[in-house]
Amino acid sequence: MSNYQKNEFPSDERDKRKAENLIDPLGKNPDTVVEKIDTEEFIVNMGPQHPSTHGVCRLLLKMDGEVIVDVVPYVGYLHRSMEKIAENRTYLQYIPLTDRIDYVSAMFCNHVFCMAVEKLAQIEVPERAEYIRVIMDELNRIASHLIWLATFALDLGAITPFLYCFREREKVLDLLEMVCGQRMTFNYMRFGGVSRDLPPEFIPKAKEFVQYFKPRVDEYEYILTENPIFLGRTKGVGILDKKTAIDYSVTGPNLRATGLKWDLRKEEPYSIYDKFEFDIPTGTNSDTWDRYMVRIQEMRQANRIVEQALESVPEGEIKTKTPTVFRPPKGEVYARIESTRGEMGFYIISDGTTIPYRVKLRTASFSNLAVLPEMSRGWKIADIVAIFASLDVIMPDVDR
Amino acid sequence: MGVDVAFKIENDLISEVCRFAKETPELGFDLLACLSCVDYVDHMELVYNLFSFAHKHKIAIKTSLPRDGEIDSVTPVWNAANWHEREIAELFGMTFRNHPDPRPILLPEDWDEGYPMRKDWEGKDFVKLPKK
Question: Cα(B49)–Cα(B33) distance, rounded to whole angstroms?
């Protein structure tokens, strides 16, 4: 620190003066000497079990008083070596494991892995299966954004949105459970389609949910968006500019909040996203409030996509037949989709056997967390909670 | 999906080629989408998946090096490479020259059982599935 001030007196001299009552720490008495206070940087260890780190992440904060000088994230507490496991499982055996990469939005991990293998083995997916995939993805996106909003607001001290969000998330999970039999780790998609068809009661229930959910987003906004305490904690806090974001490969809502209109669903339409109308919300100030606003808008857009897809689900097959002993041809592939947190990619190398030669996971949270030190320097210790939460990092997605 | 283009270069050129790919306006590869390492037992291969927001095109750059080899870090070009390179160095056991922060990242601090992502790695409870 530059304005580091040393004591003027050696310690024994100071004790003597203290004894004579010549030192006045507040400097009120003009006859006494003001004692200079030592200041130095200190280290605060935040985590790994801190509630606002949303998992097990340890942040080493170098502090100057209340101001953050530097942040060093320590990750790896949830490292299960998903990539090594993949080299020791058949392709089909690996699908349930992809659920565990990002358990809050597991449907995307399923989807991108199946997409990569389909691209590798050139498997066509029936249209009905694509519709089901999109509906499931977008419902999962709503559930994931709801859990983000709930914990983000809770970190800032607002408890009501937490209860509201979990109320709606429950309904989404009920819908997903109706189709997959699971509430979080779905294991639903297969190469060339999905594992089971929509039950007959799903579409009316989902349509009911879409209508029910529309005014609920306004409700969250009513509590938070114009709330002066919320604005004070988020507006202008933790600015991440476009150049830094791209330099660190930040993707997803965090990138869109910097004003870059970039969404793989629009730019590189996979599945059948080109059939639906939806907008890409972007931010203007790239601060924490913008990242909040982008996700709120995304929930509305996801709801819109579900509404359109439910109207036009075609009849037909739900899965292309694939051989029981599945051997994709030799080759390599990189497939990516827009998951809840950004670009999620699978790089698969096949050697023509039943087991992949190499699987590399590109997860959004891994890159999104790496940018945290750039964003939080110069902010107060209370702000890092808001900044960290606004990045929407999920730890198993980072550690894999 | 677009066409996937990949080309191979010598490993001592990586830093120059990456800088060229990023800074030439016609190429403008500003996003390092993914950085992977593949162990081919007799050598290692690094794959840099690049993407350009301005031109919306993508490319993969590949380079091979010996198993315990050294290669220039591309962190000065894209900061995103920082954590990816730390991960690769830790799991595959190669060295990145001029890396600003060469600490391990994912494994426990007291890990001493070698480089787990290598094909010939043997762990205590690790049983390999036979290939068919």
Answer: 5
> Chain B contact for A330, CB < 8 A?
no
Tokens at B113, concatenated: 């059982």
* Contact state of B49 with A347 under an 8 Å Cβ cutoff: yes
Residue type, A198: L
Note whether B64 contacts A: Cβ–Cβ < 8 A. Answer: no
Write out pLDDT tens, residues A183-207: 888 888 888 888 888 898 999 999 9
| A358 vs B: CB within 8 A | yes
My answer on whether omega of the bond before B25 falls inside 30° of 0, hence cis, is no
Shortest Cα distance, chain A CAs vs residue B84, angstroms: 9
Q: How many alpha carbons fall within 13 Å on the CB side of residue A239?
A: 9
A363-397 pLDDT per residue, tens: 888 888 888 888 888 888 888 888 888 888 888 88
Q: Tell me, what's the ipTM?
A: 0.87
Distances (CA, A) of B49 to A101, A161, A174, B5, B99: 21, 40, 38, 10, 19
- What angle, rounded to 10 degrees, do the helices at A288-311 and A381-390 form? 20
How many contacts, defined by CB atoms under 8 Å, are there between A and B? Answer: 86
Nearest chain A residue to B39 by CA: give it: A358
Please tell me which residue of chain A has the smallest CA distance to B2: A268
Question: Which among A220, A218, A230 is positioned nearest to A161, based on CA atoms?
Answer: A220
pTM of the model: 0.84
Q: What is the distance between the alpha carbons of residues A180 and A196, in angstroms, rounded to a whole number?
A: 7
Q: Which residues of B touch A357 (CB under 8 A)?
A: 38
Q: What is the DSSP string of A323-334?
A: -SS--PPSEEEE
